């Protein structure tokens, strides 16, 4: 088990505060919008593990900082570092990738996301929340995988077919499609679309409503409604996808001829 004082201040890209059992988790980079990279990739895996092991967390709210939730958007073919990847460099990414979404789903209390703007890098993370709130200017896109020259294999290949359906998900992942907030609501990706200033107050209002239920009903409800997602994440699908993503990023060496 963990306690808040042990992990609240140890992350560069995550701020945490808790009041009356409601833990607010705010993603950022230097107090501005989250800039996705190897640092957040490493920290999210550990943070979700710590949060899930703290029994004093009763509700979790995930949100971002500033004008957008996560970025920067990767332009077509523009993913950095692809030609420099080796098996040794990819190994920690592979390990973290197998755990980050599983650790999120292993948080055994209701999770609310308050998505404060465009999420063009790893938008599957807030979209996996039990209750998803989005600001009116939200855009959802998977810009860093196929569009950026990478295999969409680190969980998005599992999450989006579940959330969007298989045909829409394949189009979304292969075409770098942008889905705005209202379309996301129509498709069932988000539950409510709100003005940005109303987003966090609404998340806190919902948290207070959920807190009226007994502790075990809250916790066990979260467990049962995420069981199928956890099963698919923990199965061979996630490791296989990460292996394919890594293989496609390796340095190509010419085959030797005799």
Describe this entry's structure for a reader.
This protein is α/β, with parallel strands linked by helices and 258 residues long. The protein has one domain (4-247): 2-enoyl-CoA Hydratase, Chain A, domain 1 (Alpha-Beta Complex). It is 45% helix and 15% strand. The protein contains 11 helices and 10 strands. The strands form 3 sheets. It has a 6-stranded mixed β-sheet, sandwiched between helices. β6 (111-115), α4 and β7 form a beta-alpha-beta unit. It is globular. 41% of the residues are buried.
SSE layout:
Layout: H1 4-7, E1 14-19, E2 22-27, E3 34-35, H2 38-52, E4 59-63, E5 70-71, H3 87-105, E6 111-115, H4 124-127, E7 131-135, E8 139-140, H5 156-164, H6 166-175, E9 179-180, H7 181-187, E10 192-194, H8 196-210, H9 215-225, H10 227-234, H11 236-249
Parallel strand pairs: 2-4, 3-5, 4-6, 6-7, 7-10
Antiparallel strand pairs: 1-2, 8-9
Helix pairs in contact: 2-3, 3-10, 3-11, 5-6
Task: Briefly characterize the structure.
The protein is an alpha/beta fold and 258 residues long. It has 11 helices and 10 strands.
Structural class: alpha/beta
The overall pLDDT, averaged over residues, is 93
Return the CATH topology.
Answer: 2-enoyl-CoA Hydratase, Chain A, domain 1
CATH architecture: Alpha-Beta Complex
Count every helix, treating DSSP H or I runs of 4 or more residues as helices: 11
N- to C-terminal distance = 58 Å
Helix content: 40-55%
Number of strands: 10
For the biggest β-sheet, the strand order reads: 1-2-4-6-7-10
| Main β-sheet description | 6 strands, mixed
For the record, the CATH class is Alpha Beta
Order of helices and strands: HEEEHEEHEHEEHHEHEHHHH
Globular, elongated, flat, extended or rod-shaped: what is the shape? globular
Give the percentage of residues in beta strands: 5-15%
**Assembly type:** single chain
- As a whole number of angstroms, the C-alpha radius of gyration is 18 Å
Parts with pLDDT < 50 across at least 5 consecutive residues: none
Number of domains: 1
């Amino acid at each position: 088990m963990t306690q808040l004082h042990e992990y609240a201040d140890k992350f560069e890209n995550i701020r945490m505060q808790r009041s009356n059992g409601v833990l607010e988790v705010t993603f950022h980079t230097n107090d501005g919008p989250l800039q996705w990279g190897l640092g957040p990739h490493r920290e999210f895996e550990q943070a979700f593990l710590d949060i899930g092991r703290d029994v004093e967390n009763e509700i979790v709210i995930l949100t971002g900082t500033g004008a957008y939730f996560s970025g920067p958007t990767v332009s077509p073919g523009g993913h950095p570092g692809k030609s420099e990847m080796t098996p040794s460099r990819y190994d920690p990414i592979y390990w973290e990738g197998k755990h980050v979404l599983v650790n999120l789903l292993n948080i055994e209390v209701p999770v609310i996301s308050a998505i404060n703007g465009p999420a063009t890098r790893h938008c599957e993370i807030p979209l996996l929340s039990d209750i998803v709130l989005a600001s009116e200017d939200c855009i959802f896109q998977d810009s860093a995988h196929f569009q950026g020259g990478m295999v969409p294999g680190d969980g998005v290949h599992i999450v989006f077919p579940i959330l969007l359906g298989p045909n829409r998900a394949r189009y979304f992942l292969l075409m770098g499609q942008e889905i705005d907030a209202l379309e996301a609501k129509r498709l069932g990706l988000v539950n409510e679309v709100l003005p940005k200033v109303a987003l966090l107050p609404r998340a806190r209002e919902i948290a207070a409503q959920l807190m009226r239920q007994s502790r075990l009903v809250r916790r066990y409800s979260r467990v049962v409604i995420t069981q199928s997602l956890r099963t698919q994440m923990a199965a061979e699908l996630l490791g296989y996808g990460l292996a394919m993503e890594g293989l496609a990023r390796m340095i190509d060496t010419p085959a030797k001829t005799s």
